[in-house]
Amino acid sequence: MKIIVCGAGAWGTAVAISAAAHPDGHAVTLWAHSRAQEQAMQAARSNARYLPDVAFPPSLGLASGDAADLLARAQASDLVVLAAPMAALRGLLHGLRDCRAPVAWLCKGFEASSQDSQSFGLLGHEIQAQVAPDLIAGVLSGPSFAQEVAAGRPTALVAASEYAAVRDALVRAFHGPSVRVYANDDIVGVEVGGAVKNVLAIATGLCDGLALGLNARAALITRGLAEMTRLGVALGARAETFMGLSGLGDLVLTATGDLSRNRRVGLLLAQGQTLAQAVDSLGHVAEGVYCARTVVQRARALGVEMPISEGVVALLDGTLSPAEAVAALMEREPTAEGG
Ligand SMILES: NC(=O)C1=CN([C@@H]2O[C@H](COP(=O)(O)OP(=O)(O)OC[C@H]3O[C@@H](n4cnc5c(N)ncnc54)[C@H](OP(=O)(O)O)[C@@H]3O)[C@@H](O)[C@H]2O)C=CC1
Ligand SMILES: O=C(CO)COP(=O)(O)O
Fold this sequence. Notes:
Layout: E1 2-6, H1 10-20, E2 27-32, H2 35-44, E3 46-47, E4 51-55, E5 61-64, H3 67-75, E6 79-82, H4 86-95, E7 103-105, H5 124-131, E8 137-141, H6 146-150, E9 155-160, H7 164-174, E10 179-184, H8 187-209, H9 214-234, H10 245-256, H11 261-270, H12 275-282, H13 287-302, H14 307-317, H15 322-330
Parallel strand pairs: 1-2, 1-6, 2-5, 6-7, 7-8, 9-10
Antiparallel strand pairs: 3-4, 8-9
Helix pairs in contact: 4-5, 8-9, 8-10, 8-11, 8-13, 8-14, 9-10, 11-12, 13-14, 14-15
Bound molecules: NADPH dihydro-nicotinamide-adenine-dinucleotide phosphate and 1,3-dihydroxyacetonephosphate.
NADPH dihydro-nicotinamide-adenine-dinucleotide phosphate binds at residues 6-12, 33-34, 37, 50, 83-86, 88, 91-92, 106-109, 144-146, 284-285, 287.
Protein name: Glycerol-3-phosphate dehydrogenase [NAD(P)+]
Pathway: Membrane lipid metabolism; glycerophospholipid metabolism
Catalytic activity: sn-glycerol 3-phosphate + NAD(+) = dihydroxyacetone phosphate + NADH + H(+); sn-glycerol 3-phosphate + NADP(+) = dihydroxyacetone phosphate + NADPH + H(+)
């Protein structure tokens, strides 16, 4: 297959390396939007900025350019993978709206809400329906730290799309000795899981940073899964999707794994850092910071209760201290577990 991966951050670089090393011998190009980034990677044959200490396979091609260049390369590919942060997805999809090749994005989040609060941020497939409705598109998600995928460690992903052509292209591109790709047609459920787990990972990072204990972390993960599922079902997802890789799987990984940037934000806030300090020190995107408010706004609009996500928003906004956010959760009225 001819594959272009747009976005040379940690995750784009890892999936490009993984596809380039696939036994079927795919021709893979990693495309950076900055020429300087392409040149630095070309010189080092690695991505020192975003995924240090991982050498590129000799066959991995590198490129950079503008939107027209990306569209031309996409038109000539069998699969287009968009590995930029959520904030860039709208622009990328708009630029690719006439592309005929299957397109899959890897970002996990809702768009941040617009400041006027009149329009709520959207999931990837909702943005695509607005700006590029004719694309054959979907999402690749699931529990997957970039460093482990780049190192060829065993990983399971989920390819979600209403189009079999997209699901099949993702399976052909990535399914191999170290990566299993499962197909799913519930793109709403897969995208909600990927977005909400980032918000919940901030909560468990905070919990662990405050040394609240393993009981508390297990409670946050379990009740977090319940609120993620409530939102997803209200948005049209199937409940069982949340028991799969993009739901429970990615929640467990991100909420407990110290490679998670979102979890690290919670840990740093617990240490007394400001949000700006925590975000600056990452050097990578932490999508939960940008989409927590959207998650809560969309839940409120649907009448869905999401107390943990509400607590994260209050913490990020600075309206509650870490200790007050914990107290607010503990002081809630008793309720039935299935509710
Ligand atoms: N890292 C991981 O383990 C995983 C990440 N993801 C998701 O993938 C997405 C990307 O994450 P990750 O790669 O880790 O983020 P990073 O912060 O490591 O890198 C983001 C990259 O996106 C580039 N970028 C920004 N805007 C554009 C654009 N318009 N076009 C092309 N490239 C652009 C940045 O380039 P520059 O710096 O030059 O602006 C940078 O190289 C996120 O939504 C994340 O949630 C999903 C699964 C695993
Ligand atoms: O999505 C991820 C793992 O599946 C990466 O999580 P973080 O963005 O929190 O590092």
